[in-house]
Specification:
Helices cover 37% and strands 12% of the residues. By secondary structure, the chain is an alpha+beta fold. The protein folds into two domains: 209 residues, no CATH class; 122 residues, no CATH class. The strands form two sheets. A five-stranded mixed barrel has the order 1-3-4-6-5. The chain has a two-stranded antiparallel sheet with strand order 7-8. α4 packs across α7 and α8 runs parallel beside α10. The two termini are 37 Å apart.
């Protein structure tokens, strides 16, 4: 039998037992304690709004370095301010399992859970990103933690990063400190916001970020919780996504349906006449329902339908319930590769732009397809949208399942 806790109950029992056996070396209320620590994750940039929430003093400039000047990181304390070994009672992380030990990290899921127990540190206002390279997993950093004013114990939920002491890439010893994490995660891809990282559901969000591949995809439970959907509908979204492509994150489809219709099968846009879960335009509905025999004419690779055909297709799609529309969504997306939320949105809003760069000019392309069209018309009809980036950014702001990585 292993001599470390393997269940939540055992972990709690062990913590309580050790707490009674050890004398606490805490400090005066409000005191700031300084330690050295090993970064367990790469630094995660905060958005401009999140920096404002933290009172960042570096937002005056419009440069990227100023806009993204504060970062979050999970770290494990290994020494005092002078990088000297701590006595067990001096280490705020003394009750936590070691995420760098192969004995206590038998699999990825366990390791992630252990990492999530560690303190989340934010780089201090004085942390100079320009003068110090970004924090990477394995770097040795200097951090501060505060003694709680209520019970005189050191707060372990959050702290600040003061500086990078040494880089793992330059220190052979640091490269082996957390060797068990090598090959398990692709932490370099972690890009989470503060709310996702430390707020409600933050543990699950960070798990999505540290895992790679299909393990990072949103589950039916994630979707149901984010959008308050019945589980069977969330499960059908997951099933449909994986029928399209096994690399298709179901969260992308859930976000798309929410943004287009709010999950209402009877949603109709009074201006464009788009209808249904993904707001089928009349011509798109005609194509999905295989009305090619009623096509008015073909011009290049674009199929045109008569007004009567489009109206018929729209009414038929409007009459479909959840299950029927989900089947047509699968057919419409086809078994193609989708690598981002933007790809999914462009397949719905402007298919030609899927896979195109963010600055692809939708208005210019739309105007070029038919004589007499004006770019301004497209922009006006679409509430100021001109480029692919305009649409994707506006849409992502409304999504509840933010891209984890």
């Amino acid at each position: 039998m292993p001599d470390y806790p393997t269940t939540a109950r055992e972990y709690l029992a062990t913590t309580i037992a050790e707490k009674f056996e050890m004398d606490f070396d805490t400090g005066d209320r409000g005191e700031i304690r300084e330690f050295t620590a090993i970064a367990l994750t790469d630094g995660v940039p905060l958005s401009r709004q999140q920096q404002l929430n933290y009172g960042s003093n570096s937002l005056g400039s419009s440069t990227d370095a100023a806009r993204i000047s504060r970062y979050l990181v999970k770290a494990m304390i290994i020494g005092n301010a002078n990088d000297e070994m701590l006595r067990p009672t001096e280490n705020p992380h003394r009750y936590l399992l070691d995420p760098c030990s192969l004995e206590t990290t038998p699999n990825v899921a366990t390791t992630v859970k252990i990492i999530l127990m560690y303190t989340t540190y934010i780089t201090s206002k004085d942390f100079n990103i320009a003068g110090q390279s970004l924090i990477k997993r394995g770097d040795k950093i200097r951090v501060t933690m505060t003694v709680d004013s209520r019970d005189a114990n050191i707060r372990t939920d959050s702290g600040e990063v003061v500086e990078i002491v040494s880089k793992a890439s330059h220190d052979p010893f640091l490269q082996t400190v957390c060797d068990s994490l090598q090959g398990k995660f692709d932490l370099s891809k972690m890009k989470a916001s503060l709310g996702e990282y430390t707020g409600a559901g933050g543990g699950a969000q960070m798990t999505k970020c540290v895992l790679s591949g299909k393990d990072s995809h949103r589950t039916a439970e994630d979707i149901a919780a984010a959008y308050r959907l019945p589980l069977y509908k969330a499960e059908s979204i997951v099933k449909t996504a994986y029928k399209i492509n096994e690399n298709f994150d179901p969260g992308w489809l859930a976000n798309a349906i929410n943004g287009e219709s709010g999950f209402d099968t009877k949603a109709v846009n009074s201006k464009t006449k788009a209808t249904g879960l993904i707001q089928w335009m009349p011509a798109t509905a005609a194509s999905a329902l295989k009305y090619e025999k009623d096509a008015k004419k073909k011009k290049g690779k674009y199929t045109e339908y008569s007004k009567e055909t489009k109206s018929k297709a729209q009414q038929q799609m409007y009459g479909f319930g959840w299950s029927e529309q989900m089947r047509y969504i699968e057919k419409y997306f086809g078994h193609q590769e989708y690598t981002s939320q933007g790809d999914v949105m462009m397949r719905i809003f402007y298919p030609v732009a899927r896979g195109k760069p963010d600055n692809f000019d939708l208005a210019a392309h739309w105007a070029s397809r038919k004589k007499g069209r004006k770019e301004e018309t497209f922009v006006s009809q679409n509430n100021g949208i001109r480029t692919k980036a305009d649409y994707v950014n506006k849409f992502v702001d409304k999504a509840k399942l933010k891209p984890p990585c």
